[in-house]
């Protein structure tokens, strides 16, 4: 017990004993004047508000049980990419996550052009450079090609509010999905 | 009596009491002072609140302790208060094994319990392959005011063991998985070979040199001698059980590892029936190895292994794993001419390199890959593209791949085999 607490305890005990003495009829020369009552009331109010404030800072301490009824949940394939997209929108993790997203999509686009589109690796790299691998300028730009997006499309994109990183990544994934299929603009010319 | 721990539920009441008293003093209103007095009584009660010593007996009954997969098992949880005092607020949460999903009813109970009384909770779980042990049952006891709480655990050992039969359910075209060249492994299948197996009635087309001429001279009947057929090498079913392989299309769905083990167990049975000698291995943190062999005992061992070995559990492993060490160990164990059936969802590049390296070391590798990908999110679609690229890479490097989607395994195998023979 610290010295201050001990002191406060002493004051409390003295006050209680004095109170009991007054009840028993001993006069201590204290009158219930307005000033005295006001003092006691103010002290009680201040202390009371302090306690209420303390309540606001404490969190209830109670046992939390999990969900034993649910089966163990394992991640979905690709959830790491979704996490990257989320952290690419975050303030602190933005650049690293953005780079991971673009790098991964670029590698997959190249892989798809080689494996599905029947291109040579150098040819695939060149296609990515020029943006000729897809008919979607947003996807082409996302992977580093300097393709200009027509003004009308740009306005439409801006107005639709679908120009975030996640939206552009989604369009790029859709473009990679189309590689090697019937509606592939850079389709096999063999 | 035990104190438990303070829940802080009534923290701040002392402040309210003081504020009410102060207001009473300022306004000269006796009713406010009286209210403060009431608060003091509640505070005093909270101060002395305690909970009795908790002494509970927990029993758990299963309607069937050895069910078949997908059977519904009813679990009855009985909680008896063995202490001398009434428990006013008792909450019981059962420790359902993580791999089991509760199909009906919550696995918990909230009640007051007199001394000697018993409360019962009933719920239903859906059985899946494996050996599932119930964990600790969590018991939370509070005093009536909620000021004090205690959390305890009670253990009631219960195990549910679900061992699917290893019968090849369909006529699987698995013979295409293993080569039919003669080799040095003897099988129980009668045919041509060196070691005598049996004599059967002559059928048109049997080779003349295998006719039992002694018997012909004795009885006048034609009979054909059969030898134990010798077939190429052993087949080892390697299941990818790394943490990476524990993925599923959505929360409650079968995980890729569960499907891989299913595929391996079906393949095991079919290959064994076909006269091959089959082994089992897990490629993951929990080591598991069953050397290639054949026979009834071997089948029983494998059945138990698939069902109860921790490596094949549906829950992700948490041990450290060194893939290159594990791959070296696996290679040392594989006979040089052993064929490998690698069951993996192929959701990362390392799985591909395992298959390619085994192929490069001279083992004929067939990858059976359950597809865990969906199109629910952008990431999932990308994962599907990546997996497709991996399958193509494997096929290009000469590894045979069975891509197993939602269809039955037999259908996927038939489709894959049609592709191989082209």
TrEMBL record, chain A:
Transmembrane segments: 7-29, 35-52
One Pfam family of this chain: DUF7269
Keywords from the named record: Membrane, Transmembrane, Transmembrane helix
Protein name, UniProt field: Uncharacterized protein
Lineage, uppermost ranks: Archaea, Methanobacteriati, Methanobacteriota, Stenosarchaea group, Halobacteria
From TrEMBL, chain B:
InterPro entries xrefs: DUF58 (IPR002881), Ig-like_fold (IPR013783), OmcB-like_DUF11 (IPR001434)
Pfam families documented for this protein: DUF11, DUF58
Residue ranges constituting the DUF58 domain according to the UniProt record: 199-368
Ranges of residues in domain DUF11: 56-137
Protein name as annotated: DUF58 domain-containing protein
């Amino acid at each position: 017990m610290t010295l201050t607490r001990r002191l406060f305890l002493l004051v409390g005990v003295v006050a209680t004993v004095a109170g009991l003495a007054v009840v028993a009829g001993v006069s201590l020369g204290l009158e219930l004047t307005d000033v005295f009552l006001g003092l006691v009331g103010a002290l009680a109010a201040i202390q009371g508000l302090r306690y209420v404030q303390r309540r606001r800072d404490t969190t209830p301490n109670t046992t939390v049980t999990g969900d034993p009824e649910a089966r163990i949940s394992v991640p979905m394939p690709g959830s790491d990419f979704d996490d990257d997209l989320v952290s690419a929108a975050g303030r602190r993790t933005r650049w690293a996550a953005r780079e991971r997203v673009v790098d991964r999509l670029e590698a997959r686009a190249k892989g798809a052009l080689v494996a599905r589109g029947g291109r040579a690796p150098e040819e695939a790299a060149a296609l990515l450079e020029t943006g000729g691998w897809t008919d979607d300028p947003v996807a082409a730009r996302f992977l580093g090609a300097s393709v200009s997006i027509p003004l009308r499309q740009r306005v439409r994109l801006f107005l639709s509010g679908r120009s975030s990183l996640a939206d552009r990544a989604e369009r790029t994934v859709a473009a990679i999905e189309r590689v090697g299929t019937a509606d592939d603009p850079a389709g096999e010319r063999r | 009596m035990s104190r438990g721990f303070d829940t802080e539920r009534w923290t701040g009441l002392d402040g309210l009491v003081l504020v009410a008293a102060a207001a009473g003093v300022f306004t000269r209103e006796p009713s406010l002072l009286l209210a403060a007095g009431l608060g003091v009584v509640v505070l005093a009660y909270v101060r002395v609140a305690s909970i009795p010593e908790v002494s509970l007996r927990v029993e758990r009954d299963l309607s069937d302790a050895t069910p078949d997969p997908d059977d519904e098992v009813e679990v009855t949880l009985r909680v008896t208060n063995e202490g001398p005092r009434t428990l006013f607020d008792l909450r019981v949460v059962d420790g359902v094994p993580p791999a089991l999903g509760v199909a009906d009813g919550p696995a918990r109970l909230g009640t007051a319990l007199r001394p000697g009384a018993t409360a019962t909770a009933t719920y239903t779980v859906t059985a899946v392959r494996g050996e599932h042990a119930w964990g600790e049952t969590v018991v939370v006891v509070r005093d009536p005011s909620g000021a004090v709480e205690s959390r305890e655990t009670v253990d009631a050992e219960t195990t549910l063991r679900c061992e699917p039969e290893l019968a090849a359910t369909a006529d699987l075209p698995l013979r295409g998985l293993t080569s039919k060249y003669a080799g040095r492994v003897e099988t129980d299948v009668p045919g041509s070979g060196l070691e005598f197996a049996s004599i059967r009635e002559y059928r048109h087309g049997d080779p003349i040199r295998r006719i039992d001429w002694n018997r012909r001279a004795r009885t006048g009947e034609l009979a054909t001698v059969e030898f134990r057929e010798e077939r190429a090498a052993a087949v080892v079913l390697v299941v990818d059980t790394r943490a990476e392989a524990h993925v599923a299309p959505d929360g409650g769905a079968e995980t890729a590892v569960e499907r891989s083990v299913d595929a391996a167990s079906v393949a095991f049975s079919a290959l064994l029936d076909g006269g091959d000698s089959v082994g089992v291995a897990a490629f993951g943190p929990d080591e598991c190895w069953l050397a290639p062999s054949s026979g009834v005992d071997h089948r029983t061992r494998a059945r138990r292994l698939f069902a109860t070995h921790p490596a094949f559990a549906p829950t992700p492993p948490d041990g450290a794993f060194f893939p290159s060490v594990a791959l070296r160990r696996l290679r040392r164990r594989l006979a040089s001419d052993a064929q490998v059936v690698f069951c993996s969802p192929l959701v990362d590049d390392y799985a591909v390199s395992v298959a390619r390296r085994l192929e490069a070391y001279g083992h004929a590798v067939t990858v059976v890959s359950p597809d865990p990908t969906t199109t629910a999110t952008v990431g999932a679609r990308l994962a599907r593209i990546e997996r497709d690229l991996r399958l193509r890479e494997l096929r290009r490097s000469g590894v045979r791949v069975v891509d197993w989607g939602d269809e039955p395994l037999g259908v996927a195998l038939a489709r894959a085999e049609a592709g191989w023979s082209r």
